[in-house]
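Folds abound. Consider this:
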Amino acid sequence: MKIEEIYNQLNEISSFELQEKWDNSGLLVGEMNREFEQIVIALDIDREMLEYAKEDTLFIVHHPLIFSGLKQLDFSVYPSNLLEIMIQKRLSLIAMHTNFDKTHLNSYVFEKVLGFKKEFQDEFICRTTGNWTKDELLNLLKTKLNLETLRVVSPKNRINSIALTTGAGASLMDEVNADCFLTGDIKYHDAMKAMSQNLMMVDIGHYESEKFFVDVLMDELKNLGHLGIISQSQNPFKII
């Protein structure tokens, strides 16, 4: 197949026009008329993944390898070191980031992974109501997301509404109408702000909340009659 064919199919599944202005989803490496031999799906790409890849492989990833303009290609530093390998091996790259968050990933994690019933969804925020104790909720999150520890801001003994944004969603806290907000990459000043507003926040991890991208996209590709290979990238953080 040519890249253009699958690009158009992916655009039907989750329009690239839905991406945020600051995002860089779409075809990042390659050309539309180039043919590819196989598809690899991953959250991110890393050196080991590229070195083992066959020539003319198309990678479909969640996080764009190129986020802002490159002023130089110094092949000793990231991301140019990975781009050099991709060019040498004729590897291509499509990113589906904030567009896929809006159409697929947030809902999937909220409903299929965590088992909540979605009652409301804004672009990035899923929300539901119910009745949970603090321990019930935290144990659920640890079990479903395979987390050993959790960072919690303003813990509440009773929780009647929960919202979620996968990845780094702390900047959306002012739009959250819930007792508890689940997201990743909560910074110190985000936590201070949440505490002042009596908003419970739970840091569920960026990687941990978005690693399901590969499963969701694999199902979509199967529905289109495509075979793909899942190559799950490594979490860069280790708990020691």
Notes: The two ends are 45 Å apart (CA to CA). DSSP finds eight helices and eleven strands in the chain.
